[in-house]
Amino acid sequence: MDLALWIAAGLLAAVALAGGVTKTFVPKTTLAAAHGGGWTADVGVAFVKTLGILELLAAAGLILPAALGIAPILVPVTAVCWILLMVGAMMTHGRLGETGLVMLNLVYLACAAFVAWGRFGL
Questions:
Q1: What pTM was estimated for this model as a whole?
Q2: What does the pLDDT look like over 51-97, one tens digit per residue?
Q3: Contact 39, 92 (CB under 8 A)
Q4: Nearest 10 degrees: Cα torsion 47, 51, 53, 55
């Protein structure tokens, strides 16, 4: 079970790292032109950068506390925060009619729920 939780947390951390780097360092106009990035055209640069930084923090929060043994309670807390982020992403992509991305966000939400459940409950 512990291995499955590490794999799920690692997958989510990789997704968060990729999304965070993209949102933080790629220009908004480039993001808006990319598949799934159309929502960035409707929001400010600061909002996109803030989401990127939050995703970078999530990547660290899903792995480092447990790996270092320092405040491991932060792993499930981060997973719950990721769930909230995915709910917002699903609403945004749903509003834009991007059903495939809604389903992908649902998979990420399920992984985060598994990590939260496993790390809070075990």
A1: 0.91
A2: 999 999 999 999 999 999 999 999 999 999 999 999 999 999 999 99
A3: yes
A4: 180
